[in-house]
Amino acid sequence: TLGLGRVVAGDAFALSRDGVHPQQEGQTFIAYHLLRGLGTDGRLAETVINGAAGTVTQTGRCTVSNLSLADGALTFTRTCESLPYPTPEVARPFRFLVQLDDTLNDDRLVVTGLTAPSYALAIDGQPVAEVAAAALAEGINLSQYAGTPMYRQAMEVLDAVRAKDLLDCGFWRTYITTGKADGAGAPAAGLDE
């Protein structure tokens, strides 16, 4: 990933400022490679709908309810088992290097039997994209769209984890590495540098 990134993006592709500690982009790709090495399955969810009949024909790792077809609008409620792998905004331009969205975030939506050339895709009432009927019939990966509510929720979880990490790191730097406290915050008598 590092070599390909440097070839494709040159100096714009920097995973670490100091060559040791990775930035968000670097952390994203390290986590990606660890997850792939552990055998993580890339299928996040799959929803297949027959738009002409207004029926769900297949689901995987999600449930679909409240399907309605009226006045050319197909609406439904979908609940997935998990959120997409959160790629920070700074790393999104480089996600193609490892086909990140397809290998960890395959959130497949297939809608067949559509008659208009293209359709407006909205999630929770928020416009996401204009999608060709042919693309919907083939299947689109919802994780390709960073503006979806699912992706924003995944980023909120990532931000909360990062905030906790910063607190932990600050505690370690202030107390543990200076010998002022043990892991529970009690004075660490007898510890040297």
Detailed description of the structure:
The chain has a four-stranded mixed sheet with strand order 2-1-5-8. It is an alpha+beta fold. The protein has five helices and eight strands; from the N terminus they run H-H-E-E-E-E-H-E-E-E-H-E-H. It has helices at 2-9, 24-37, 100-104, 133-138, 149-176, and strands at residues 43-50, 55-60, 62-70, 73-80, 106-112, 118-123, 126-132, 140-141.
SSE topology string: HHEEEEHEEEHEH
> How many beta-strand elements?
8
Q: How is the biggest beta sheet arranged?
A: 4 strands, mixed
Low-confidence stretches: none
Helix content: 25-40%
- Kindly estimate the percentage of residues that lie in beta strands according to DSSP: 25-35%
Question: What is the alpha-carbon Rg in Å?
Answer: 22 Å
The span between the termini is 38 Å
Helical segment count: 5
Going across the biggest sheet, name each strand in turn: 2-1-5-8
The shape, in one word, is elongated
